[in-house]
Amino acid sequence: MPKRIFSGAQPTGNLHIGNYLGALRNWVALQHEYESFFCVVDLHAITVPQDPKELAAKSREVARIYLAAGVDPNVSTIFVQSDVQEHAELAWVINCVVRISELERMTQYKDKAKRQRENVSVGLLTYPALMAADILLYQTDLVPVGQDQKQHLELTRDVAERFNRDYGETFRVPDAFIPKVGAKIMALDDPSKKMSKSDENANGRISLLDDAATIRRKFKRAVTDSGTDVRFDASRPAVTNLLSVFQLLTGKTPEEIESHFAGKGYAQLKSDLAEATIEFLRPFQERMRDIGDEELSRTLKGGADKARSIAAETMRAVRERMGIVGA
Ligand code: AMP
Ligand code: TRP
Questions:
Q1: Which CATH architecture has domain 202-288?
Q2: Cβ–Cβ under 8 Å, residues 222 and 238
Q3: Which helix (H) or strand (E) holds 232?
Q4: Is 197 a catalytic residue?
Q5: Which string of b and e fits 245-256 if b means at least 16 CB within 10 Å?
Q6: Is residue 53 flagged as an active site residue?
Q7: What is the DSSP string of 265-318?
């Protein structure tokens, strides 16, 4: 069997450069080496309340973002999670294998539940079971994600191993692919927090759809550290975060970047970074506009058909192993 990749993003908020640098960029880079599945995970989005019209529109927008970012529908499978019902079916099975204590330990759950305060859905707790289902359905080898998903991947591996032990070899046990640079881009307004789609303050993130003026303004306002010289330095997280973004967008080495900024201050860093980001996003945003609605529908339908055929095969094996085969 070919080596497979699976990954996804939730169709909520606006995808930002952290999503791109931590995840999408690597999908694009890896898609030629692996058989790849990139999913818009709308069933994950509904673990917190969503406006139905907006969610449906966002699902298509996020698929469009995958394409504009360089995911090639001729080599990769792009689809929306709710088009493949096996995701929900396997998630139920995994809910019966995973332990409540394992789910309660997940830091993303604890953070989101705290923010939500009351009316926390059961779905929010079992979110990682659905994510494990996504991955295991496709007999995935590698899951390219940002740092924040590492714990969910470890749980996916544990659940796969437990199922294989209890019911017989059924799932491939996946590895996470987490990049060395870019796995956790921090918020521009607070370098102690990750850049997030859901943060109330939009100044902390550069959306992939921001216009040039907005990008310049947000970088200008970005928090910096004490000191003046522009160097990668773990004790100065704000400047190091900006430099990492610059490094990833320009493809320059840290040495080249430090010598470029030698004798220049933070203002120069911010303005060069803004221009590099604008340059990078211009062709991306043009491609977003160029992708027709029909073309998008065709891609998503083809993707769902392909995904469904593989998911159905895995699900057949799962049903058989567990004895849930109907009458
Ligand atoms: P999400 O927006 O939560 O659906 O995330 C989609 C992908 O982007 C996942 O692989 C995340 O790990 C990744 N990601 C989210 N935020 C960041 C960030 N601030 N830095 C790097 N990667 C991120
Ligand atoms: N939980 C991931 C996130 O918030 C999104 C996701 C859902 C995912 N299912 C997945 C990522 C499967 C990788 C593989 O970023």
A1: Orthogonal Bundle (1.10)
A2: yes
A3: none
A4: yes
A5: bbbbbbeeeeee
A6: no
A7: -HHHHHHHHHHHHHHHHHHHHHHHHHS-HHHHHHHHHHHHHHHHHHHHHHHHHH
Q: Note the CATH number of domain 4-178+292-322.
A: 3.40.50.620
Q: Is the pTM of this model over 0.85?
A: yes
pLDDT in tens, the chain (327 residues): 789 999 999 999 999 999 999 999 999 999 999 999 999 999 999 999 999 999 999 999 999 999 999 999 999 999 999 999 999 999 999 999 999 999 999 999 999 999 887 889 999 999 999 999 999 999 999 999 999 999 999 999 999 999 999 999 999 999 999 999 999 999 999 999 999 998 999 999 999 999 999 999 999 999 999 989 999 999 999 999 999 999 999 999 999 999 999 999 999 999 999 999 999 999 999 999 999 999 999 999 999 999 999 999 999 999 999 999 999
Tell me if domain 4-178+292-322 and domain 202-288 are identical in fold. no
- For ligand 1, atom 4, the nearest C-alpha belongs to 9
Q: Specify the DSSP element, H or E, that contains 37.
A: strand 35-40
The answer to whether the CB of 275 is under 6 A from ligand 1 is no
The pair of three-digit structure tokens given for residue 11, joined into one six-digit string: 């169709």
**Phi, psi (5° rounding) for residue 155?**
-65, -40
The domains of the chain are located at 4-178+292-322, 202-288
Q: Which long-range contacts (CB under 8 A, 24 or more apart) does 204-207 make?
A: 205/14, 205/16, 205/17, 205/18, 206/16, 206/17, 206/277, 207/14, 207/15, 207/16
156 Cβ inside 6 Å of ligand 2: no
> Is there a catalytic annotation at residue 110?
no
Ligand 2 pocket check: which of 15, 41, 90 to mutate, most ligand atoms within 8 Å of Cβ? 41
The tokens of 56 are what?
A: 């449906």
Q: How remote is the CA of residue 131 from the centroid of ligand 2, in Å?
A: 6
